[in-house]
Amino acid sequence: MKSAYCGYDFFHACFEELLVAGMDVYRVFTVPCDNRVNFNQYIYKLCEKYKIPVSEERITEGTIEQLQTAGCELLIAAAYNYKIPSLSETRIKGINIHPTLLPIGRGVWPLPWTILTDQKQSGVSIHKLTEEYDAGDILIQRSFPVAPDERLESLSAKVQLLARNMILDVALKFEHYWGTAVAQSSDVIIWNYPPKEQRTLSWEKNVGELDRICRAFGKFGCFATFENNNWTVYGLSAWEQSHNFTIGSVVHKTNTEMIVAARDGLVSLLYFESDLT
After folding, report:
1. Edge-to-edge, what's the strand order for the sheet holding 265-274?
2. How many helices (H) and strands (E) does the chain have?
Protein backbone atom coordinates (compact mmCIF):
# COMPACT_ATOMS: atom_id res chain seq x y z
CA MET A 1 0.00 0.00 0.00
CA LYS A 2 1.60 3.27 -1.13
CA SER A 3 1.71 5.53 1.90
CA ALA A 4 2.80 8.90 3.25
CA TYR A 5 3.86 9.43 6.85
CA CYS A 6 3.49 12.62 8.93
CA GLY A 7 5.16 13.20 12.28
CA TYR A 8 8.27 13.89 14.30
CA ASP A 9 10.38 11.71 16.59
CA PHE A 10 7.80 11.07 19.32
CA PHE A 11 6.48 8.09 17.34
CA HIS A 12 9.59 7.41 15.28
CA ALA A 13 9.56 3.74 16.35
CA CYS A 14 6.20 3.37 14.59
CA PHE A 15 7.71 4.76 11.41
CA GLU A 16 10.69 2.41 11.68
CA GLU A 17 8.45 -0.62 12.27
CA LEU A 18 6.55 0.16 9.08
CA LEU A 19 9.73 0.52 7.06
CA VAL A 20 11.28 -2.68 8.41
CA ALA A 21 8.05 -4.51 7.59
CA GLY A 22 8.38 -3.36 3.99
CA MET A 23 5.58 -0.78 3.80
CA ASP A 24 5.87 1.46 0.73
CA VAL A 25 6.29 4.84 2.40
CA TYR A 26 7.24 7.20 -0.39
CA ARG A 27 6.83 10.64 1.22
CA VAL A 28 7.39 11.95 4.75
CA PHE A 29 6.23 15.20 6.28
CA THR A 30 7.68 16.38 9.59
CA VAL A 31 7.64 19.65 11.54
CA PRO A 32 10.41 22.07 12.57
CA CYS A 33 11.95 20.97 15.91
CA ASP A 34 14.46 22.52 18.28
CA ASN A 35 16.07 19.09 18.81
CA ARG A 36 16.36 19.94 22.48
CA VAL A 37 12.95 18.94 23.81
CA ASN A 38 11.21 18.15 20.51
CA PHE A 39 13.11 16.14 17.93
CA ASN A 40 12.97 15.02 14.32
CA GLN A 41 16.51 13.59 14.10
CA TYR A 42 15.40 9.94 13.90
CA ILE A 43 12.88 10.80 11.19
CA TYR A 44 15.59 12.38 9.07
CA LYS A 45 17.99 9.49 9.64
CA LEU A 46 15.37 6.93 8.63
CA CYS A 47 14.45 8.93 5.54
CA GLU A 48 18.11 9.11 4.58
CA LYS A 49 18.57 5.38 5.13
CA TYR A 50 15.51 4.43 3.09
CA LYS A 51 15.95 7.26 0.57
CA ILE A 52 12.53 8.80 1.25
CA PRO A 53 11.92 12.50 0.48
CA VAL A 54 11.13 14.46 3.65
CA SER A 55 9.74 17.97 4.07
CA GLU A 56 8.96 20.34 6.94
CA GLU A 57 6.45 22.25 4.81
CA ARG A 58 2.87 22.22 6.08
CA ILE A 59 0.59 19.80 4.19
CA THR A 60 -1.91 21.75 2.08
CA GLU A 61 -4.83 20.84 -0.15
CA GLY A 62 -2.37 21.04 -3.02
CA THR A 63 -0.16 18.49 -1.27
CA ILE A 64 -3.12 16.14 -0.91
CA GLU A 65 -3.85 16.48 -4.63
CA GLN A 66 -0.23 15.61 -5.41
CA LEU A 67 -0.39 12.56 -3.16
CA GLN A 68 -3.55 11.32 -4.81
CA THR A 69 -2.13 11.87 -8.31
CA ALA A 70 0.94 9.85 -7.30
CA GLY A 71 -1.28 6.94 -6.21
CA CYS A 72 -0.99 7.37 -2.45
CA GLU A 73 -3.53 5.13 -0.71
CA LEU A 74 -2.83 5.78 2.98
CA LEU A 75 -1.75 8.78 5.04
CA ILE A 76 -0.45 8.04 8.55
CA ALA A 77 -0.32 10.87 11.07
CA ALA A 78 1.72 10.32 14.23
CA ALA A 79 2.39 13.40 16.39
CA TYR A 80 1.94 15.77 13.45
CA ASN A 81 1.32 19.31 14.67
CA TYR A 82 -0.41 20.68 11.59
CA LYS A 83 -4.03 20.29 10.58
CA ILE A 84 -4.26 17.86 7.66
CA PRO A 85 -6.76 18.94 4.98
CA SER A 86 -9.84 16.82 4.45
CA LEU A 87 -9.38 13.50 2.66
CA SER A 88 -13.12 12.93 2.22
CA GLU A 89 -13.10 13.78 -1.50
CA THR A 90 -10.03 11.66 -2.23
CA ARG A 91 -9.21 7.98 -2.49
CA ILE A 92 -6.67 8.36 0.31
CA LYS A 93 -7.46 6.78 3.66
CA GLY A 94 -6.07 8.55 6.69
CA ILE A 95 -5.29 7.32 10.20
CA ASN A 96 -3.89 8.99 13.29
CA ILE A 97 -1.99 7.58 16.28
CA HIS A 98 -3.20 9.28 19.46
CA PRO A 99 -1.68 8.77 22.96
CA THR A 100 -4.90 8.44 25.00
CA LEU A 101 -7.95 6.23 25.25
CA LEU A 102 -10.24 8.28 23.03
CA PRO A 103 -12.67 9.93 23.41
CA ILE A 104 -10.87 10.79 26.65
CA GLY A 105 -8.07 13.25 25.99
CA ARG A 106 -8.70 14.71 22.58
CA GLY A 107 -6.17 17.48 22.03
CA VAL A 108 -2.67 18.36 20.88
CA TRP A 109 -0.74 17.56 24.11
CA PRO A 110 -2.82 15.22 26.28
CA LEU A 111 -0.05 13.40 28.16
CA PRO A 112 0.42 15.99 30.94
CA TRP A 113 -3.34 15.94 31.55
CA THR A 114 -3.24 12.18 32.00
CA ILE A 115 -1.11 12.80 35.09
CA LEU A 116 -2.72 16.06 36.20
CA THR A 117 -6.19 14.49 36.24
CA ASP A 118 -4.94 11.36 38.03
CA GLN A 119 -6.04 8.90 35.36
CA LYS A 120 -5.72 5.26 36.43
CA GLN A 121 -5.62 3.94 32.86
CA SER A 122 -4.22 5.34 29.65
CA GLY A 123 -3.28 3.91 26.30
CA VAL A 124 -3.14 4.44 22.55
CA SER A 125 -5.89 4.85 19.97
CA ILE A 126 -5.44 4.53 16.23
CA HIS A 127 -8.38 6.17 14.51
CA LYS A 128 -9.58 7.43 11.16
CA LEU A 129 -8.68 10.98 10.24
CA THR A 130 -11.70 13.28 10.11
CA GLU A 131 -12.39 17.00 9.85
CA GLU A 132 -12.70 17.17 13.65
CA TYR A 133 -9.52 16.60 15.63
CA ASP A 134 -9.18 13.13 17.18
CA ALA A 135 -12.85 12.30 16.51
CA GLY A 136 -12.64 9.54 13.91
CA ASP A 137 -13.77 5.94 14.25
CA ILE A 138 -11.31 3.81 16.21
CA LEU A 139 -9.50 1.03 14.38
CA ILE A 140 -7.69 -0.28 17.45
CA GLN A 141 -7.25 0.77 21.06
CA ARG A 142 -5.10 -0.70 23.82
CA SER A 143 -4.58 0.33 27.42
CA PHE A 144 -2.12 0.15 30.32
CA PRO A 145 -2.25 1.22 33.98
CA VAL A 146 -0.88 4.62 34.96
CA ALA A 147 1.53 4.33 37.88
CA PRO A 148 0.91 6.44 41.02
CA ASP A 149 4.29 8.13 40.51
CA GLU A 150 4.07 8.37 36.73
CA ARG A 151 6.20 11.04 35.06
CA LEU A 152 5.79 12.52 31.60
CA GLU A 153 8.87 10.63 30.42
CA SER A 154 7.73 7.22 31.65
CA LEU A 155 4.21 7.78 30.32
CA SER A 156 5.65 8.78 26.94
CA ALA A 157 7.80 5.66 26.82
CA LYS A 158 4.83 3.39 27.59
CA VAL A 159 2.77 5.04 24.87
CA GLN A 160 5.56 4.78 22.32
CA LEU A 161 6.27 1.12 22.99
CA LEU A 162 2.60 0.22 22.78
CA ALA A 163 2.01 2.24 19.61
CA ARG A 164 4.94 0.55 17.87
CA ASN A 165 3.27 -2.84 18.12
CA MET A 166 -0.18 -1.50 17.34
CA ILE A 167 0.72 0.26 14.10
CA LEU A 168 2.42 -2.86 12.77
CA ASP A 169 -0.65 -4.91 13.59
CA VAL A 170 -2.85 -2.39 11.79
CA ALA A 171 -0.55 -2.29 8.77
CA LEU A 172 -0.52 -6.07 8.40
CA LYS A 173 -4.32 -6.35 8.67
CA PHE A 174 -5.33 -2.91 7.47
CA GLU A 175 -8.50 -3.74 5.56
CA HIS A 176 -9.83 -5.70 8.53
CA TYR A 177 -9.24 -2.89 11.01
CA TRP A 178 -10.51 -0.23 8.62
CA GLY A 179 -13.67 -2.16 7.94
CA THR A 180 -14.41 -2.90 11.60
CA ALA A 181 -13.62 0.56 13.00
CA VAL A 182 -15.96 1.66 15.80
CA ALA A 183 -17.41 5.12 16.36
CA GLN A 184 -16.24 6.91 19.50
CA SER A 185 -18.66 7.26 22.38
CA SER A 186 -20.26 10.57 23.29
CA ASP A 187 -18.29 10.81 26.55
CA VAL A 188 -15.79 13.24 25.08
CA ILE A 189 -13.12 14.90 27.22
CA ILE A 190 -11.00 17.54 25.49
CA TRP A 191 -7.61 18.40 26.95
CA ASN A 192 -6.40 21.59 25.31
CA TYR A 193 -2.80 22.75 25.49
CA PRO A 194 -2.13 23.34 29.21
CA PRO A 195 -2.11 27.05 30.10
CA LYS A 196 0.80 28.50 32.03
CA GLU A 197 -1.16 28.64 35.28
CA GLN A 198 -1.64 24.87 35.05
CA ARG A 199 2.15 24.49 34.86
CA THR A 200 2.90 26.83 37.76
CA LEU A 201 4.01 25.68 41.20
CA SER A 202 1.88 27.72 43.58
CA TRP A 203 3.34 27.20 47.03
CA GLU A 204 -0.15 27.45 48.55
CA LYS A 205 -0.87 24.01 47.06
CA ASN A 206 -0.21 20.83 48.99
CA VAL A 207 3.02 18.99 48.30
CA GLY A 208 1.26 16.10 46.58
CA GLU A 209 -0.20 18.46 43.99
CA LEU A 210 3.15 20.20 43.48
CA ASP A 211 4.79 16.84 42.88
CA ARG A 212 2.05 15.91 40.40
CA ILE A 213 2.51 19.13 38.41
CA CYS A 214 6.24 18.62 38.13
CA ARG A 215 5.83 14.98 37.07
CA ALA A 216 3.25 15.97 34.48
CA PHE A 217 5.60 18.30 32.59
CA GLY A 218 8.95 16.60 33.16
CA LYS A 219 11.68 17.78 30.79
CA PHE A 220 9.45 20.56 29.45
CA GLY A 221 9.43 22.15 32.88
CA CYS A 222 6.95 23.85 35.16
CA PHE A 223 7.17 27.37 36.51
CA ALA A 224 7.87 28.75 39.94
CA THR A 225 8.67 32.00 41.72
CA PHE A 226 11.00 32.25 44.71
CA GLU A 227 13.79 34.59 45.85
CA ASN A 228 12.17 37.34 43.78
CA ASN A 229 12.91 35.50 40.56
CA ASN A 230 11.06 33.33 38.05
CA TRP A 231 12.32 29.79 37.51
CA THR A 232 11.69 26.74 35.36
CA VAL A 233 11.67 23.53 37.40
CA TYR A 234 12.28 20.08 35.91
CA GLY A 235 12.49 17.86 38.98
CA LEU A 236 11.65 17.99 42.66
CA SER A 237 11.14 15.91 45.79
CA ALA A 238 8.38 16.91 48.20
CA TRP A 239 7.19 15.71 51.58
CA GLU A 240 4.57 16.62 54.16
CA GLN A 241 5.96 18.30 57.25
CA SER A 242 4.62 20.71 59.84
CA HIS A 243 6.54 24.00 59.83
CA ASN A 244 6.37 27.69 60.71
CA PHE A 245 8.18 28.96 57.62
CA THR A 246 6.68 31.59 55.36
CA ILE A 247 4.99 29.82 52.48
CA GLY A 248 7.05 30.24 49.31
CA SER A 249 10.27 31.10 51.14
CA VAL A 250 13.58 29.32 50.60
CA VAL A 251 14.32 27.68 53.95
CA HIS A 252 17.51 25.84 53.08
CA LYS A 253 20.10 25.56 50.32
CA THR A 254 22.59 22.89 49.37
CA ASN A 255 25.21 23.16 46.64
CA THR A 256 22.66 22.11 44.03
CA GLU A 257 19.18 22.19 45.61
CA MET A 258 16.84 24.68 47.18
CA ILE A 259 14.22 23.80 49.79
CA VAL A 260 11.02 25.83 49.53
CA ALA A 261 8.17 25.90 52.05
CA ALA A 262 4.76 24.84 50.77
CA ARG A 263 1.40 24.87 52.54
CA ASP A 264 1.71 21.45 54.15
CA GLY A 265 5.37 20.56 53.75
CA LEU A 266 8.69 21.18 52.08
CA VAL A 267 9.79 20.93 48.45
CA SER A 268 13.35 20.18 47.42
CA LEU A 269 13.98 21.57 43.95
CA LEU A 270 16.45 19.21 42.27
CA TYR A 271 16.69 20.47 38.69
CA PHE A 272 15.84 24.08 37.89
CA GLU A 273 17.11 27.15 36.10
CA SER A 274 16.37 30.85 35.99
CA ASP A 275 13.55 31.68 33.60
CA LEU A 276 15.04 34.36 31.39
CA THR A 277 11.78 34.90 29.50
Report:
1. 222-226, 229-240, 265-274, 258-261, 250-253
2. 7, 14
